[in-house]
Structures
1.
Amino acid sequence: MASTSILHFRSLFLFVLVASLRYGAAAGDVDGGEGFCSAEPSSECSGGPPLYWKATHPTLAPAHLQDLPGFTRSVVKKDHALITPESHVFGPLPDWINTLGAYLISPSIGAHFTMYLANMQDGSKSALPPKDVERLVFVLQGSISLSVGTGTTHSLSVDSYAYLPANIKHSMISDESTTLVIFERRYSATEDFHPDLIVGSTDKQPLLETPGEVFQLRKLLPTSLPYDFNIHIMDFQPGEYLNVKEVHYNQHGLLLLEGQGIYRLGDSWYPVQAGDTIWMAPFVPQWYAALGKTRTRYLLYKDVNRNPLI
């Protein structure tokens, strides 16, 4: 009798194991096979979704809470905020043509910059920022034609960006359904420095040294004095983490482009994933660890090159 029970238990165990493996394989096929890729970007996996797909098409986690009325992972505190996709509110962007925007970070939360998403349809057109406001545009999905001044045109696709100094005349027209993340702030002028128009792409930026750290770092803007902020692209392989719990005077605005992990802000610990936005006030303790099977990549705003007293 005992041996019969043991055989029955073993058969049941093998059945559950095989069913689990088959379900996992099916789930991998549904989400582009990400679960079977090594620590590489999802776009490099055979048949995988486009780069930053999950940043623009995020899924709620845990899945069983997706349809729960009022559910959100968003948290807002005096020195930090986690803004998650299920709580985004889109509305027409003022003076833009056929474009919906969602402001993720603004001065009303305590920031000295704005960070917002712009969803453009085919043929949508941008408006200029307010007087003396500089702008950085990063393409998450689709493509745009950027016209600057009277005749210069640049084509920007996914992972491309443009820094537009304050008061420079420009317009952006979408070539297809496009999502942009945009940073704007009132330019902090100093002496006779004047920043230049910058157009580039992440893959063209060199990897920089990060003494004592394991992550990979790229900076999208020059580090010279004319620029009062920079945008960092930071890559973590699964299991990598910041060695230092940072506390500094700089503000941050962060968008998780790929992957998932744990972010510590102050005394709180937050599970985060692609599509999540974080605001960090000056001097809030901050730390990150990457989890999951693929790399983490996030885009990070940081104010630089200015005296905090000014």
2.
Amino acid sequence: MQVEASGGLPVPELEGSRSASRGGGSIRRRRQRRPRRGAGAPQAMAAPAAGAVQRLFEACREVFNGAAPGAVPPPAGIERVKSVLDCITAADVGLTPNMSYFRRVDPRGTPKITYLHLYKCEAFSIGIFCLPSRGVIPLHNHPGMTVFSKLLFGTMHVKSYDWAAQQDTPDVPLQGSRLAKVKADGILTAPCETSVLYPEDGGNMHCFTAQNVCAVLDVLGPPYDDGSGRHCQYYNVSSSAISVGGSMLLPGADRYEFLEESEPPEGFYLVGSTYMGPRILDH
């Protein structure tokens, strides 16, 4: 999803993401010790391992760059990005639940959602959604996109849909609505595995409702782009389908609901802020 200062998804990218800096100050020279007699030659120092955020960037660059827009990466590529995300923690991106992003300014109103921009190019984007308690990211889609979502901390309710297959569509659909299959409808609590959605499967349309303060690290490949037809569309649930094709939907069986396009809900407010965690080096 994209972010706008006015509260809709598309999001302005914040080029204020932390840049490299070199501190000043004096440097003391220390006399190099000579190796003890009989000792072997000193070993070369190993290069420091890349941080978690940098490893994620490099995995995304290898998996998404060069791929056709809207093309789903191969299974090995999906697993590569997912395995890196599975290991990332809130500490790796410099987040804690007591930060200002997660505070409710007005306890009676709908809390604003904050988006932290880490990186964006034509092939993919990386960002974090910060949700105060009872914060809601309304039902929206991801056209032609493969999306990874990692819940860094907190508990949230997730509901997601995929469009129903042609054979499941009733003869007389509700006017202005389209039938969708419920893919997920439940509670997710960190720590948990990264979820992956695809252009046609995996819950391409979803909504999040924070049960307490939550942070979600998102990777979109490719990102939203109105000019390329990847526009973020919102939906309302217009009606539940009690039966499809004359068959009753029994408990535990597939569930279907009619969705209709809508404007962002009144009171939904999404703002961009500067990411202050470890920076990404784009060599």
3.
Amino acid sequence: MQLNAVARLFYSPRLLLSTRQPGSLSSVPSCGLHATATLNDAGTATKSVPEKPKRPMNTYIRFAQSIRSSLASANPQASPTDISKLAAVKWQSLDQASKAKLEEEYKREQAVWLQKNAKYLSQLTDAQKEEIKLERQQRNEGKVKREQKRMLKELGRPKRPMNAYLRFCAQNKPAPGLSKEDNKMQMKNLGMQWKRLPEGERERYTKEAEAEMKRYQEEMKVWEDKMLAAENVIAVRKKNVLLPPSPASVKAKKGGIPVVDSAPVAKPKKPTSAARP
């Protein structure tokens, strides 16, 4: 098992968002379309990258989409995942003639799309191509993060507790259901209340948060040991995968003189020319 390669993939550095030009906005991608926008002098959004031609659905997706509504009506209690499973069963029993017809429709639309996409790519500037590349990287990173979060939840990773301020907000925040502006104002008021909170009250929240953090760290140690024993190194924090630092390196970081266990190896001296008689 190539654990090191998997660990490097999981802990790859995040994309630096500072490379994006200031003022550019990304729209939410949907159904193969994407477009970006920038703010003009009037403050309104204008597209900087044209919409990409929509790629046609393949044969199976085309079939599944055509029967999804009927399956949902016949199975009102079924979840979207269950509907997809039912569609897969229907696909397996579909006759070859119907599959061939769907394949022909797909190929016709695919040929049209290839022409439109080639024209679309030829009209893009270098800046627009770079912007599309960055957006694709961000979408991929977002997908990886969602998959990681789902995986860690399934593996039962302990949930990190709230700090003192967030504990104060959670205990003093009214019932949900406020508008975005009202909620923003509410959080602002909570921040002001926290600053005016007596030292004794703030200390209580701090001690509660410290106790919860200690419990969390103990649970994380047990859980990560369990993950390492099961070779699930991808789920463990990077610092716990590495070997512990040596005493010498720890002392050097603190400003001390590192202890050298072995004697230093002397560098060979350069040969000198023989003395003339």
4.
Amino acid sequence: MAPPPSATIGQMITSVFLLLLLLAPVTQNAKSMLPRTDRELLEFSLNLEYLEAEFFLHGSMGRGLDHIQSGLADGGPRPIGARIANLSPMVRNIIMQFAYQEVGHIRAIKSTVPGFSRPLLDLSVKSFAKVINKAFGRHLFPPFNPYANDLNYVLASYIIPYVGLTGYVGANPILKSNTSRKLVAGLLGVESGQDAVIRTLLYERATLIVVPYGITVAEFTHKISKLRNKLGRAGLKDEGLVVPTYLLGRGVLTGNVLAGNTNSLSFGRTPKEILRIVYGSGKEQVPGGFFPKGGNGSIAKSYLKKKKS
């Protein structure tokens, strides 16, 4: 005998309720299914992605992540000193493409792991001038202004994305999940492309004098790469656009449009090395530079706690 209609409806409601209970934890915990190491490494990379996104967005359009996709900033403080750069139409178009690529990277990472809010970033003229002064071991006058023109902006762009690239190379062998490795491979592909474009734009101008300093573009890249090696404290993992003929056994070539080891493989860096560089302090527990209050996420914060203890 068929059950009364009321009983059938009650069973259906109960079944739906139980189904929702079963599905809810999956939805809520989907971003927590990755191994802890994977989650922490992917989240750590957000620090660099936020930095690149804000620099490229402001440089090309004069507005940042809060205007383009505010939810991704997650309430984090607005960058210090970021501004629109005085760029030619071609360079502005390239940088704008980079900007939207970085927005996509943040979106991809935060759709895979919980993530965190945008850390405080210092993208002021003063911040970049400090990097350049430290690279040359003296104060350049007038202070280096990344927003002044095409050449200065591309030189400033040389400072940032490559660090993130080496971070992905370093993280990839440690990742355990196929989901994580697939994401990092996709991120690394585009970050490598950005670095190649930046280096090519500068390589075309390698012998050009950067006004008013009387220093060539090639020398700027050499000094910046040398500084990053020094701050990273992990040996040679960075090279400028022109290298000595004997370096890494490359024979007669001095051109170095792409950086790599003796087998032309990309260099990798650890989170510690990256923090030492972007903080400008050479110490992963001492914030500063582009991150006045340090990076976000469990990895960066763990080093900051060590300083306080």
